[in-house]
Amino acid sequence: MLTGLLGTAAIPWPRELRAEGGNAASDLPLPDTHWNAAVPTGLVPQKLPLLRLSDRPIVLETPRPFFESLLTPNAAFFVRYHLDVIPNAIDLSAWRLSVGGNVSRPLHFSFSQLLSQFEPVSVVAVNQCTGNSRSRFFPRVAGTQWGNGGMSNARWTGVRLMDLLNRAGLRSHTVALRFQGLDSGRGAEGTPSHAYSKSLDPEDPILQDCLIAYQMNGEPLPMLNGFPVRLIVPGRFSTCWIKHLSWIEALTEPDQSHWMMNAYRLPKKPHYSTTPEEVALGKLSTIPASHAPMPVRSFFVLPDGSSKLVVRLPIEIKGIAFSGSGGIRQVEVSTDGGRSWRLARLDPDLGPYSFRGWRLAWTPRQPGRVELCCRATDGKGNVQPMEPIWNPGGYAWNVVETQTVFVGESA
Amino acid sequence: MECRRNADRFRGGVRLSAHLFRSIAVAVVCLTLYAGVDSALADSDGLSEAGVYALDSTGLIMPVSPFPGNATSTYSVGAYPLAPTPLVRGSGQELVESYCSICHSVTLIGAQPHFPPELWKKEVDKMIHLGAPIPTEMVGQIVDYLQKHYGPLPEGNSSSVPPSKPNP
């Protein structure tokens, strides 16, 4: 199953490099072209071997073959922490989920109360790191150098966030809802390296779809995916899917924390794309990544380029697609490097926030190198861009994927 | 009968492994990181243990969760494995290890692309903003080390070539 871990996915070189024949910018590190980050695997509790981007804090990427399943197995679900004081043990007799701040009735819920007092609700939703595919950016940017595996999909079951908020009664003049979990860092109290929390706008329509999940694919959450409960914000990046969620606070002042004001900001521009020059001018307007729907993406799962295809032997090209804006309307596939496109057949729909499977029968007609491209359109008509995007955080990459395959002779 | 003996041997094996596990755990206890969980224990937030890691460079301390063996309300997964990629040898290395490792493994340093020098300066400034307690007089040495060993590669090398030999 794990063949093709390092199958290459050629991506278009930035135009400057092509123009200069690839030499002029040789002092700048080039984008990584591996589908998954080219790092060794590591084993952590409750997980299969995953690609270890960092051992402390724990950051693990899901290897490509696991995306053959639309629901990512819990043991293969990617992991990303900012801070390293990650829970090793949690006592549910003492653990409570608190709803406080500017509310009429501050409340504390035990795990069993969450199970017994609220209607269970399920949603299938993609969890994707804002920086997924960061290694594609050119010029390269600092941060976790994700390949494409900083994403996973699961069926989440739990309590509606609104059910909790309605019971607590949000009071007027609430301008932000802040979420925080049990994980923390070793920095001094009051510094960003001590605590990670994120806020959502109380007027944001996505709140209606948010869950506090105690189940993931019908099982308890793995510790590293947020046991005992995690905030699910369908269609949004995982930066606001707070793990080990324990505190919900209604704020009357905007959340001015580093994690809202400095980190995870997207340029307020088409495709969230800007240039280093524009950033240097210092006038770039930005929005919090947690307030923006995830842009539409699509990926090849098979073929993965790890072995040759045989001329005139039919195969099925298979992939996944998703978007934070109304699900997937169509996926087009090119077998000639983007010159012509054919519509792929979409698999059954697991909901607008899920991976959507797609497939296309294809018979390679002649030996040689072939560039496969896939391009998705979402429910709101957004289409993946063909040209690379760039922003200083390395966020929201959604450029059309290219998969190089080699077709061999059969006689 | 044969089956029972096999089962006994199996259980014996498990005991031995558990013993081995404990011995190694004791041997590396000085390398194990503990967060201040004493206060957490006293808190009502249910956090019994957090930020516990154990060195896993040998692969002997397998990060397999301990078999729960009880039905209490505490859910534990054991220590998280540490497997840091060593830093390149050079002047300033110890400073980088001391200050950067407070919050994160040095694996993250080697995992970055070979940034232009000014970007390493920016990264160190960012970490100080995040709370890294680096004394002002040490900043220069740390930045120098990162720029020298994790900066641009010598001309003619492609970005896929490792910079130089890491510590054993």
Automatic annotation (TrEMBL), chain A:
Q: Which cofactor does it need?
A: Mo-molybdopterin
Does the UniProt entry include the keyword Oxidoreductase? yes
The family database entries (Pfam families) matched by this protein are listed as:
Mo-co_dimer, Oxidored_molyb
Record-annotated Moybdenum cofactor oxidoreductase dimerisation domain positions: 294-396
Q: Which residues form the Oxidoreductase molybdopterin-binding domain?
A: 86-259
| Keyword Oxidoreductase part of the UniProt annotation | yes
List the EC numbers from the record: 1.8.3.1
Q: Where are the transmembrane segments?
A: none
An example Gene Ontology biological process: sulfur compound metabolic process
UniProt keywords (A-Z) are: Metal-binding, Molybdenum, Oxidoreductase
SUPFAM superfamilies assigned: E set domains, Oxidoreductase molybdopterin-binding domain
GO terms of molecular function: heme binding; molybdenum ion binding; molybdopterin cofactor binding; sulfite oxidase activity
Protein name in UniProt = Sulfite oxidase
Q: Which organism is it from?
A: Methylacidimicrobium tartarophylax
UniProtKB/TrEMBL annotation, chain B:
| Keywords from the named record | Membrane, Transmembrane, Transmembrane helix
Residues spanning the membrane: 20-37
Report whether NADP shows up as a keyword of the record: no
Species this protein is from: Methylacidimicrobium tartarophylax
Source superkingdom: Bacteria
Q: Which InterPro entries match?
A: Cyt_c-like_dom_sf
Which molecular function terms from Gene Ontology are attached?
Answer: electron transfer activity; heme binding
Is Cell membrane included in the keywords of this UniProt record? no
Name of the molecule in the record: Cytochrome c domain-containing protein
